[in-house]
Amino acid sequence: MTTAKPGEVMATIRSLLPSLLPTERAVAQVLLSRSNEIVELSSQQVADLAGASRATVVRTCQSLGFSGYQQLRVLLARDAGYQPADAASAPPVADGAAGIVAETFRHVQASVNGMVALLDDTEVARAVDALASAERVVVVGNGLSAPLAQDAAARLTSIGRPAEAPMDVIGQQITARLLGGGDAVLLFSGSGANASTQRVAEAAAAGGATVIAVTAFARSPLTQVASITLVVTMPDLTFRDEITLTSRLPQAILVEGLVAALTHALGDRAQRAKALALDAISDNLVE
Q1: Which residues does residue 164 pair with via DSSP β-bridges, in sequence order?
Q2: Where do the CATH 3.40.50.10490 domains begin and end in the chain?
Q3: What is the reported pLDDT for 282?
Q4: What is the model's pLDDT at position 14?
């Protein structure tokens, strides 16, 4: 990793944490929990905190895509300049439910850099091109990702890029097996480890379809199959959070971005579709 976007170091560590060896994972946990101190800590001090060797610290940094511990320290020092203003300068928060809601919005605002830190510009462009040119687009998500898939398919269809989102897991796999080289499947899986979604990816890939994965972790069973990987995540995400309760907000925002980019790519076709969609909506509004 020769260069990195603001927030990418921490996002990379969290994203790759599940794929590390146990000893490397212990080092990575120290890097996460002591991120504000790493700039002042030597590799040996990090090793002592992790109960590992200095060589393991260096190897962990390399497994994460850095040349070594020194590069990671430099990038973390740079990221310190992108941190949001101290909480003490933030406006006061109301008590109770209103305070919780307001704090949630502030948390999202402070997390934006981390959300997109692992989103690769080239992969985004490839995904938009594939979705725009595909003969058939299938959108799949299961579990907590199912609503995202339904929304994405509806949004794509509304801009003249017809898409289908079968909900039954067997139906998803049957549909995927019927896809060919000119088709694309857009898959949502926060963990990248949902077995049903993985089977869809493998079936689509076997037929030659373009497999686009939207996930929170850069290394997962799903990314091993995907033709294109779009990684968006919450900066303070853990693997357990992702498979249990974490919001799909970064993925939902990504859908908005993809729809906007596709609208631009499709040009007049998208504008005509949006006009027809607006007509249909207006017919169903009550005065």
Answers
A1: 138
A2: 121-282
A3: 79
A4: 83
Q: In what order do the strands lie in the sheet with 210-215?
A: 137-141, 184-188, 210-215, 228-231
Q: Are 19 and 219 in contact (CB under 8 A)?
A: yes
Scanning the structure block, which residue is given the tokens 């299961």? 142
CATH number, domain 8-82: 1.10.10.10
Q: Can you tell me which residue has the tokens 């080239």? A: 122
List Cβ neighbours of 84 (8 Å cut-off, separation of 6 or more).
Answer: 109, 110
> Given this model, what pLDDT does residue 87 score?
43
Nearest to 278 by CA among 270, 165, 201, 237: 270
pLDDT band at 86 (very low <50, low <70, confident <90, very high): very low
Roughly how many angstroms between the first and final C-alpha of the chain, as a whole number? 57
Half-sphere exposure of 7 (CA within 13 A, CB side): 18
Q: In the chain, which residues fall in CATH 1.10.10.10?
A: 8-82
For 25-93, give the DSSP string.
Answer: HHHHHHHHHTTTTGGG--HHHHHHHHTS-HHHHHHHHHHTT-SSHHHHHHHHHHHGGGPPPPGGGSPPP
Q: Which residue has the tokens 């949902």?
A: 194
Residues 180 and 205: beta-carbon distance below 8 Å: no
Core vs surface per residue 104-138: b (16+ CB within 10 A) or e? eeeeeeebebbbbbbbbeebbebbbbbbbebebbb
Q: What CATH code would you report for 121-282?
A: 3.40.50.10490
Is 161's pLDDT higher than 90?
yes
